[in-house]
Amino acid sequence: MLDFSGKTVLVTGGSRGIGAATVRAFASRGANVAFNYNKNYRAADLLKQECEKFDGNIFFMECDVSAYNEVELFLKKMGDKMENVDILVNNAGIWIEANIDSYTVDMWRKTIQVNLDSVFYFTTLIARQMREHNTKGSIINISSTAGQVGEKNYSHYAASKGGIISFTKSVAQELGPDGIRVNCIAPGWIETDMTEAIMKTNKSKIKKMMPLGFIPEPQDISNGILFLASDMARAITGEVLNINGGSVLCG
Ligand SMILES: NC(=O)c1ccc[n+]([C@@H]2O[C@H](COP(=O)([O-])OP(=O)(O)OC[C@H]3O[C@@H](n4cnc5c(N)ncnc54)[C@H](O)[C@@H]3O)[C@@H](O)[C@H]2O)c1
Question: pTM for this one?
Answer without folding.
Answer: 0.98
